[in-house]
Amino acid sequence: MNNNGIQRGAAAGSKSKKIVGLIIRYLVLLLVLVILVTPLVWQLSTSLKGKGVGLYTRPPQFWPEDASLAAYGEVTRIVPILKYTINSVIVAIICLIGNVFGATAAGYALAKFQFKGRKFAMGVFIVGIVMPTETILIARYMLMQSLSLNNTLLGIALPSLVGAMNVLLMRNAISGIPSSLEEAAMIDGANAWQRFIRIIIPSVKGTMAVVAIFSFVAAWDDFLWPLLVMSDQNKYTLTIGLNYLQGTFANDPRVVAAGTIIAIMPILILFFALQKYFFQGVGEGGIKG
């Protein structure tokens, strides 16, 4: 009886610890969620407040009673928002395609091929991650100038066409694919490109979605490099265009908030479209089992 009681007590104590740990975990997640979402909700609320509605009331009013889209209309009146959005989409899509396919191909080569200089190539990619972008801005600018790509959308996208971090992400995912799959394909006569298309790509779709989102967001949010390369206002990306007219926006926080919401909408749309593959790819290490 005593032994059974001790075992039941130990089991109850272990269960209580698990419940407490679970509660703490969810409280921390809830806190992180509030910290991340509150600024976005506040910007959305501010953008929907009309001229006669106070912005900084007590207690804060997160959803205005009389929501208005006037601030969004003001943004489109002041800024050629459609033109800037199209420019940003073009740059982001070029970077997305280049990173998804280029990083996957490079990751495949680093993960599955044995060649002279492989470790050196890995080191170059690692250095590319830790090196601050600002240290190579001048070299980038001179290179684009020598290629006559300054003041072009391609000149913005080209330096970010294949990211070092994305290559290493793909390399780690592809390394987890069993070599036996490739060996079987080689016995059947498949060459490297056939193995890449028929085995590698289907096995790492999740990680490719992660790379797609990361590269799109990085290209969409980039400000410093497009600012250096571009001088023609008609070719500005959205981030530059909105910031360039910040003096006009400064007098009305509602318009600033509306511009912010417009700028982040494509990112949210892409994430929700790829979220299934994104969460699959975050923990993807190749084929399990």
From TrEMBL:
Signal peptide region: none
Output the Gene3D superfamilies linked to this UniProt entry. MetI-like
Domain ABC transmembrane type-1: start-end pairs: 85-273
Q: Which residues cross the membrane?
A: 20-42, 89-111, 123-143, 149-169, 196-220, 255-274
- Organism lineage: Bacteria, Bacillati, Actinomycetota, Actinomycetes, Bifidobacteriales
Protein known as: ABC transporter permease
Q: Give a Gene Ontology cellular component term annotated to this protein.
A: plasma membrane
What family does the entry list? Belongs to the binding-protein-dependent transport system permease family.
Tell me the CDD domains matching this sequence: TM_PBP2
Record key words, sorted: Cell membrane, Membrane, Transmembrane, Transmembrane helix, Transport
- InterPro entries of this UniProt entry? MetI-like, MetI-like_sf
Q: Report if keyword Transport is assigned.
A: yes
Top-rank taxon: Bacteria
Q: Where in the cell is it found?
A: Cell membrane
Q: How does it sit in the membrane?
A: Multi-pass membrane protein
Q: Any one Gene Ontology biological process term?
A: transmembrane transport
Where is this protein chiefly located? membrane
